[in-house]
Amino acid sequence: MRRSFVLTTLILLAVVFAGCTQTQKPETQPEKTVIVGSGATFPQPQLEKWIDVYTKQNPKVQIEYTGKGSGGGQNDFKQGLVDFACSDPPLSESLWNELKKKGQPLQFPIIVGAVVVVYNLPGVENLKLDGETLAKIFMGEIEYWDDPAIKQLNPEANLPHEKILVVHRSDSSGTTKIFTTYLSLVSDEWAEKVGAGKTVDWPVDKLGRGVGGKGNQGVATAVKQNPYSIGYVELSYALKEDFPMVALKNKAGNFVTANEETIKFAVSRVSVNIPSPREGYKEDLKALLNAGGEKSYPIVAFSHIVIWEKYENEAKEEAIKDFVKWILTEGQKSENIVQGYVGLPEDVTSKLLAEIE
Q1: 184-223 tens-digit pLDDT
Q2: What are phi and psi of 239, to 5 degrees?
Q3: CA angle 289–115–306, rounded 5-degree value
Q4: Is 45 exposed, middle or buried, given 0-12, 13-18 or 19+ CB atoms closer than 10 A?
Q5: Radius of gyration (C-alpha) of the chain in whole angstroms
Q6: Which of 8, 102, 136, 185 sits at a 20 to 30 Å CA gap from 210?
Q7: CB–CB of 91/61 below 8 Å?
Q8: What is the pTM of this model?
Q9: Are the C-beta atoms of residues 218 and 318 closer than 8 Å to each other?
Q10: Residues 83-97: tens digit of each pLDDT
């Protein structure tokens, strides 16, 4: 009997305790404002650094970015799948007009970078090329590493009689647009036969000596895995993989590699005319390419962000505006710049901040 009473009492206490715990409201965490972006892999390492620093300072904001190429980001933004996109080349006027049917797009540069030519050539360091020879390699007209044109530029190098494997982007890429625009500037033959674009019809593919890689990282991986290959990537990827980089002949006739000094020198030698963010498509991609000056690296370009002037969600609008302002101020400080990139000139950031306000 006593045992039954004790058991009943325990059951009643358990029920009462359960009832008490059910009435207690769990502590709720404040909701985060989530911002989603996609696009260029050219600025991705820099963007990831900014996101990491900014979200630690602003824990109520969560920012996600997927690198899928400038073309992929532009398409996502057009379809309303992301809140912002990153594109290396300025958007085309036709796409800009499409976007304007939905609202006012804003586009402006956020960082300066460089496209470099990397290679996997055992036993050869300090390779030198001029624009015309580089174009012939990527057209497939120069087949072997010991071709007379390459030997003439590198008389002391031990160039092997091996076929050149050309690695290029397989996706719609702003890095490709920058690289092919440069080749079009330095080679009339390239301009006529291939041209410039986020995607192009690579002649080497038809010759069986071309291979595509997705994103800058895909190209870097393919070059790393294939001896006697050559490709083009954004500078930070070359530094990350510790690739040897081609010294390119610049407009002044000097052979230079990309680094902070040669990138800044190129930017300082051109008149950087940035249009209003409301007319971002009017920016000239060629402005920084093949700049004059003895130390200028010839393939330098801005990378851009594309956002809307207005968002339906007010919290999201404020968060995006604050993040963008942070990029143009704190984000441009040396401690927040990833190796391989250069901050925007001060006159550019001050103009953009005034416009965004």
Answers
A1: 999 999 999 999 999 999 999 999 999 999 999 999 999 9
A2: -70, -40
A3: 80
A4: buried
A5: 26
A6: 185
A7: no
A8: 0.87
A9: no
A10: 999 999 999 999 999
Residue among 93, 33, 76 nearest 58 (CA): 33
Tokens 């076929």 appear where? 163
Q: How far is CA 142 from CA 127, 132, 135, 147, 231, in A?
A: 15, 11, 9, 7, 14
**3-class secondary structure, 233:** strand
Side-chain-side CA neighbours of residue 40 (13 Å): 32
pLDDT along the chain (357 residues), means of 10: 44 42 51 95 96 97 96 96 96 96 96 97 95 98 98 96 98 96 97 97 96 96 97 96 96 97 91 87 92 95 96 95 96 96 91 85
Edge-first strand listing for the sheet containing 128-129:
128-129, 247-249, 255-256
Average pLDDT score, the chain: 91
**Residues β-bridged to residue 230:** 119, 166
Residue 307 CB neighbours (<10 A)? 24
- Please, are residues 348 and 109 in contact by the beta-carbon 8 Å criterion? yes
Cα→Cα distances 34→65, 316, 334, Å = 11, 7, 27
Q: Which of 331, 349, 353, 343 is nearest to 53 (CA)?
A: 331
Dihedral angle, C-alpha 212, 215, 217, 218, nearest 10 °: -20
